[in-house]
């Protein structure tokens, strides 16, 4: 099945109000900026989607990408490991005002919860977080004389991810560290939407090099020159651009 979609707007058209959205990226590395901004464009035009739960490594920086989603009031809840990173002013202001909820998850636990969601594993046990506020209210069991905290899987309605190369069937490769959470999120979401820098015909990717098989991909949109979050923030960019 050909997974190619004509435009970013078409690719994100089915993200609904109240959806849980996984967004790839480790800071700006692997962040699907164009897909995120297309979702913001739709919100500004129609008032939807809103009330989103966003799952990401961090809570955005500056005034672009995830931070711009939060600034527009689209996000009701963040599930992340690093709500405070380089320039988290948007999330911080809204959180302190009680306008956004936060579920803080240790980074390794976050990755494993997403992996469990994709693998169909409802819960697992980890020693991480035991004895801290993060374990409050969670079941604890002892294995080999050590206490472990039960953590539940994470699944999503939609995953927005960025890949380096994809073929028409949705098979993907990634560029170095931009791979990060993307393969796990593709497996854990009901619908996976991918922006790719290069599109090739089936057979154009060595099967041994495929990281995410096309069975986990629903929509593929070509973005040949993707923006980098750090570059945008160094330039003082805001999305949408504020004009006089």
Automatic annotation (TrEMBL):
SUPFAM superfamilies in the record: NagB/RpiA/CoA transferase-like
Keyword Cell wall biogenesis/degradation attributed: no
Superkingdom of origin organism: Bacteria
UniProt xrefs under SMART domains: CoA_trans (SM00882)
Claim: Transferase is one of the keywords in the record: yes
Gene Ontology molecular function: any one: CoA-transferase activity
Pfam families on file: CoA_trans
Alphabetically ordered keywords of this record: Plasmid, Transferase
InterPro entries registered for this protein in UniProt: 3-oxoacid_CoA-transf_A (IPR012792), CoA_trans_fam_I (IPR004165), CoA_transf_BS (IPR004163), NagB/RpiA_transferase-like (IPR037171)
Classification via NCBIfam families: pcaI_scoA_fam (TIGR02429)
Family the entry assigns: Belongs to the 3-oxoacid CoA-transferase subunit A family.
Name the UniProt record assigns to this protein: 3-oxoacid CoA-transferase subunit A
Source organism: Paracoccus liaowanqingii
Lineage of the species this protein comes from: Bacteria, Pseudomonadati, Pseudomonadota, Alphaproteobacteria, Rhodobacterales
